[in-house]
Every structure is written in C-alpha cells, then in structure tokens.
C-alpha cells in the first residue's frame, strides 16, 4: 500500500504546486503574518473534503451537472476579478506599507470568507479532485487502496500549505518593504486576473 500512498503524494504535489489563487492567498497571508496558519488549515481542510469527495464518487456528480460547473465557473470569474482588482489597485497606490495597524483591519471572518471563496469558487479544483483524482482513484479495485491513495494526496496538501505559510512568514522581514509589497500585490492581482480570463475563455468556448 505504500506504493499507492506515494502515487497519491506525487500526483497531489503535481496538482497543487502550480501557483493559483489558493497558493497566492496563503503566501500573501504568510508575508503579512496574519492568520497564516488558519489560512493554511482552511485550505487543507477544504482540500481534504474535495479529495475525499472526488475519489469516493464525486466525479459522477460533476460529469452529470454541466450547469453546476458553469455556475461555479462564472461565480469564480467574478470573485477573482474583484479580488485581483483590489490587489492591483494596492500595487499601484502610493502607500503599500504593511504596518500592524493596517494589517489588523482585515478581520478573521473576512479572511475565512476569502479562503473559502478562492477554494470553492475555483472550477480548477473540481477538475483536479473530481475528474483527475476521481478517475484515477476509481481504478483501484479495493476500498483500502483508494483510502491510501486519498491519504497520499491529502498529505501533499498538508505539507504544501503549511510549508508555504511557514516559508512566507519566515521571509516576511524581507518581503514587507514597500517595493516587495508592490511586487507581491502585482503578482497576486495578475494571477487572479489571468485565471479569471482563462476560466471565462474556457467557459465561452465550451458553450
């Protein structure tokens, strides 16, 4: 079963490593050192729910509900455009310093809502977990093998999100300068808008 675990770990790492809205947000909160462990934990818990749903039968639900996928896609596009606009506006504003007083203005509940939005309103996460992991997980004959496969992919999420949050927090003294913050916000905003336009383009083409 260890070989199945490492298959899940490798595939989970391959799916999670590309820089997307989840990773960008975890990195940003780590740099701010503001609820970054909570952010990593919420991303991990969301991934656990999605991975388990995908491997243990969710792929059938998604394939039978193209309307549901379309609704998620356009809600995600709207949110990513809004969040990206905020990051880009901050990047080009005159003051992008991160004092403690400024950072604390972002409440815990707002961060929770943002984490849930960048996770659950991203159609790519359903394609990764329901379609890719679901189809591969269904190839294992025994329930035990599917559980080990799921455990491997979940382990990749845990290691990645907490590692990213820790690394960003460790590098925070170097990344909290005005110049670094401008670059980070520009990067985050660009990623959000790129994914939004990519999702919109894919949705229009498939329609």
Short description:
The protein is mainly α and 207 residues long. The protein has helices spanning 2-16, 21-32, 36-63, 66-91, 100-103, 108-120, 123-137, 143-170, 172-175, 178-206.
What does the model show?
The chain is mainly α. The chain is 84% helix and 0% strand. It has 10 helices and no strands. The radius of gyration is 18 Å and the shape is globular. The chain starts with a helix and ends with a helix.
Low-confidence spans: 98-104
Instruction: Kindly provide the radius of gyration, computed on alpha-carbon positions and rounded to a whole number of angstroms.
Output: 18 Å
- In helices, the fraction of residues equals over 70%
> Care to count the β-strands?
0
Shape estimate: globular
CA-CA gap between termini = 42 Å
Q: Which range does the strand content fall in?
A: under 5%
Mean pLDDT: 82
| Structural class designation | mainly alpha
Q: Strand-and-helix sequence, N→C?
A: HHHHHHHHHH
> How does the major sheet shape up?
none
Count every helix, treating DSSP H or I runs of 4 or more residues as helices: 10
Q: In terms of topology, how is this protein built?
A:
Blueprint: H1 2-16, H2 21-32, H3 36-63, H4 66-91, H5 100-103, H6 108-120, H7 123-137, H8 143-170, H9 172-175, H10 178-206
Helix pairs in contact: 1-8, 2-3, 2-8, 2-10, 3-6, 3-7, 3-8, 4-10
Pick out its properties.
207 residues, mainly alpha, 10 helices, 84% helix
